[in-house]
């Protein structure tokens, strides 16, 4: 069902008004919908706040294609996978050609049939020289199996080259999770642990941080061997243009870290044995006023992690806007589902 | 997480936080580490101690203390008060001189550095030309005489430190007036001592190292007298009337020289080697004090026979036929005599001998018969046996306080009743708001009770658990009981004795109930003693019980130490805390956690193998729970880490060496070896550490698993009356947290008081929570319906706390080293959490609930968690929402022992060891601050002179 209408480009107004307008145009007041649009690269991106709405309007050339989906119909799995397939069909230009060449994952099978062991994530927002690796410890008996050490690396600073202390992977245990993924190697420099920069932290602190996150460890490294980096086209989506070779974009890691932290809650459940009965996972307490938000996040997250992949450019856009307005840190449902984005699964 | 990212959005809360929290390091308690110099002002009645790290501390009346720190952090070599001034001069080992003064500022006195100065020689002269060896502040307080290695005596003006070059006393000038036959240029090398004439400020006595002594006339710039000693000179002392002076020498002799108008005299009146005839060690300092009865006090340091007592640290006092050589267990740094402060007095009339030894301050009462020691109100040697743990109890009820003091006073009868002789300055700090006790457990099996209410940490009472056990040490093998006719007449003084007879006696955990006077103490060899306060001596049998924590676990062999042997039959206990029951854990591993519930009469204890609950009313073990993982073999081997065990074994081997030495040379005793052994110990520790440094520094990254070692180690125990089974009935419960992130909860049934002896206490496991991150559980706490932590046992019964809210739902707070989690009760569901390690890379070392009051209004206070991390930071985290309030850096992260020793009080203060002998006191609260506030006034200038330097025309200027 198509509708065509026009907007004043210079005065797009607020997202709320736009949303109201859509409901009005489609004669579906009181129906919750998800709004998406295709950007100049042909990526399907969401519109759910003022900023991405304005971005969408500004990219209209002159036509802006908007996709509307009923929220309750399209539960998130449908939304995700549908988007993918449709994107392929409808939109000739797909987000990351490099990824698709390597991993036509959709063809293999549904990802929820597999247990991920490790993944490279956030390829689009990191500089090409960096790699963010996620190790899924839960459910496997394999040890993480690596060691870290102190060392020093050379950075480009305003004062020229400078030697700065850094943390490096010193050893991989044969047969360990780290080694078996092939994503980490000896002498890779560790830059972040679960979104938190390690610069200025001691080896012991970084060790403690990694162990504390060991059930869902996400390390950002600068691989010692830079030849295997994912090579991207000059055209990269979203915010990757902001990334510089020498340092991480300052705001994104923390934003990401916060999202990942939230996600982790779902897979770290303590166990209780009552009266010598069977062990059970400890449930979440009925949320108090304050924790409603986080609870809903988690539920959404859960589904998204199970069900797959969303166009990665959405993420980038959010980050680019996010760096303008800190409001973005307050996650909203829907946005949370974006973080699995760009996943490559090694089976 | 978002809480971290957006801190402090609420301006009201931010303002409140400023009213509640404030970080201050307020005062250092205990004995300064590595003291290096001592000074005393008879005018101000203040004592100054300098240390090897460049600190200078002034002490007067109890509560009067000042501290200063030289920027250079160099060793303080000498301290000299300027006569009749609130000023002092320090000499550091870098040859710099510093002028400090006490100035009043905002109602209190403050110690400030005013000037610094380094003597400069003419260009090209060797450094020895200006190396200061002797300092004499002249009684005119205008100039300072500086004797140097080169033999020159420089004169500098105060306070500007301007060198008055025309007044320099050169060796050439000195030699002019001395016959050349037995003197040459070399006689005047190195000035050893400078002393002003007690009656005539125009004359000073100069002692050169090679034995030449010259009386110098300052007005005429010439030597009036010279005295030629044959021995190398150590020190000089004027007699009060200025008619004679004493010199002491390297060979252990001292000589008395008359000073008459006849300048020919250069032979000593008397030359004595007090501990001859065999070669003796040097007498490094001597006092000659006159008394009314004519018999002088001769007090000197050293002089012991070189061969057999050369290793002793002694100070001898000779008064007529009485002679005692006070024998110190550590090196004597310096000493002074307190004598008559009445300027008109004809005699010195010494009252006290104050000795600064390396590890303690000893004051001897010279007025009372037998020369007893005086109990110091401060500068306590906390480390007289190494501190192994501490426990703080706030707000002690008056009744218990008095009973502890009375028990302590019975132990202190051998001390002199003399009031503390160093009493300068006025303490103007308000009285401490409450009575606080700090209990320290020691390696030798003692527990010391310190009054920690105010600025002066002083010992109230000392409890020893040794009597319960049979130890190797023979009680008759006491090294200071020497026969009457022993020569030299050594008498051991002081309390510093760092060697424990048996390291298993070491105290590891202490728990005192301030309402009931029950005390539980647990030690290194798995011993748990429950004690009761008794005001009388008593003789009784201590009941024994064994707690087999391994239960039915088969196939284990304990490779650690054996349990302590107990004494059979009744044991005599002095008044104070007397043990009535001993629970022995099996295997006898170190007790790692302890909790006492005085209302239910239960004591819970845990080791690396499990935990148990003991009913000390019926003297019956209620249950034990083994927490050991079947594959954890390491836990059985005893000591906790290889490094630790290596250290320990080194220490033990030294102890053995020492013991064998002692037994082979009975009389030589511990004192001499103590510092050697200590040094060697320190060296070995260093070597071990260095070895570890050399190993490639890499860290293994691995998730914790149930199979890790020491997961069963019980870290915390907690009693709570809460809703464990259902939300309608609450019951007593015991909670335990382990190193592997497991929390056990037991439901207890305690019979009502009237049937307490008839029915057994029952326990049943109700819950077991496994934290998925498996980090060690370091704290467990139950919050009541109002989210307030449950009160202590008997607190409500004594009307000191509101009864807990049993209507609303309770919450359980579990603190692991990595995160804080709040669960609901009775059905355990997770409610809130705060991650620390995942975000900041630091771990929780200590956590306590502290009550913070507002400094603005009296009616607001709140409970928060005070947390110390392994990085030495202190964080305050709100209850029950677990929001980080504030963070302060407190201890250096390298200072592992400081972090391990930290103890928080219930009202937001804390203590940690900055050296083996000193606690730093800090405060997180705006309301509870204990810090020195004192005033030193210039005493009224006496009419024309004062004791020490009588007859100065300048003294009158002071007023």
TrEMBL record, chain A:
> Keyword Cell division: yes or no?
yes
Compartment(s) where it occurs, according to its Swiss-Prot or TrEMBL record: Cell junction, Tight junction; Cell membrane; Cytoplasm
PB1 domain residues are 1-71
Look up the record and give one Gene Ontology term from the biological process aspect. Answer: centrosome cycle
Domain PDZ, first and last residues per copy: 132-225
The transmembrane segments are none
Where does this chain mainly localize?
other
Keywords carried by this UniProt record: Cell cycle, Cell division, Cell junction, Cell membrane, Cytoplasm, Membrane, Tight junction
Q: Which CDD domains match?
A: PB1_Par6 (cd06403), PDZ_Par6-like (cd06718)
Task: Give start-end positions of Low complexity composition bias.
Answer: 234-257
Query: Could you tell me which residues belong to the region Disordered?
Result: 228-257, 325-347
SUPFAM superfamilies registered for this protein in UniProt: CAD & PB1 domains (SSF54277), PDZ domain-like (SSF50156)
One Gene Ontology term, aspect cellular component: apical plasma membrane
Per the record, the similarity remark reads: Belongs to the PAR6 family.
Official protein name in the record: PAR6B protein
Per the UniProt record, the lineage of the source organism begins with: Eukaryota, Metazoa, Chordata, Craniata, Vertebrata
UniProtKB/TrEMBL annotation, chain B:
InterPro entries documented for this protein: Lethal2_giant, LLGL2, WD40/YVTN_repeat-like_dom_sf, WD40_repeat_dom_sf, WD40_rpt
Q: Where is the composition biased (Basic residues)?
A: 658-669
Q: Which GO terms describe its molecular function?
A: GTPase activator activity; myosin II binding
Which superkingdom does the taxonomy of this entry point to?
Answer: Eukaryota
Keywords attached to this Swiss-Prot or TrEMBL record, sorted alphabetically, are:
Cell cycle, Cell division, Cytoplasm, Exocytosis, Phosphoprotein, Repeat, WD repeat
Output the Gene Ontology cellular-component terms.
Answer: cortical actin cytoskeleton; plasma membrane
Q: Name one GO biological process term.
A: exocytosis
The record's annotation in PANTHER family points to:
LETHAL 2 GIANT LARVAE PROTEIN, LLGL SCRIBBLE CELL POLARITY COMPLEX COMPONENT 2
* Family as reported in the entry's similarity comment: Belongs to the WD repeat L(2)GL family.
Q: What does this protein do?
A: Part of a complex with GPSM2/LGN, PRKCI/aPKC and PARD6B/Par-6, which may ensure the correct organization and orientation of bipolar spindles for normal cell division. This complex plays roles in the initial phase of the establishment of epithelial cell polarity.
Q: What is this protein called?
A: LLGL scribble cell polarity complex component 2
Organism, per UniProt?
Agelaius phoeniceus (Red-winged blackbird)
> Which gene produces this protein?
Llgl2
